[in-house]
Sequence to fold (166 residues):
Amino acid sequence: MNQLVARNTVITLDYHVTDPDGEVVDEGRDPLVYLHGGYDDIFPKIEEALQGKSVGESVQVKLQPDEAFGEYDPQLVQIEPRKDFPKELQVGMQFEGGPEDGSDEEFVIYRVTDIEGDKVVLDGNHPLAGSALVFTCTVTAIRPASADEIEHGHVHGADDEEGCDH
Fold:
């Protein structure tokens, strides 16, 4: 039976991502495995393009910033005193931050983008925020999702990085 990409199937993709000029953004060294059917495991426009495809079929999807990692938000850039950070601070390090009385959902991952004298520049935008992307992929495997995967809304497996504890 030739299975098709459909709701509640687990899809494996070989993929790569470029910017509109063809510069590689993500080589896709490891296959992408996700639960298909509106579980927010993959960008909706890509999921829509894959609907009804079979193993071996490919799609190329052009994503505008608002369809991918969002528009760049200058309000997510902060300048903080150097003294508030560890001694071994380097550009590229990440810190979690948010309002003092905020919920976990309000926390943002900030990247150190610059260290100048006694100031540190933090950016809470995703590194690809504001970027248009071209996502090219080929379906390499399709299987029915397990009842647990459907209930939890994500793929389970030996390499389940989320450490699912539901």
User: Anything to note?
Assistant: The chain has a mean pLDDT of 89. The helical segments are 44-50, 147-152.
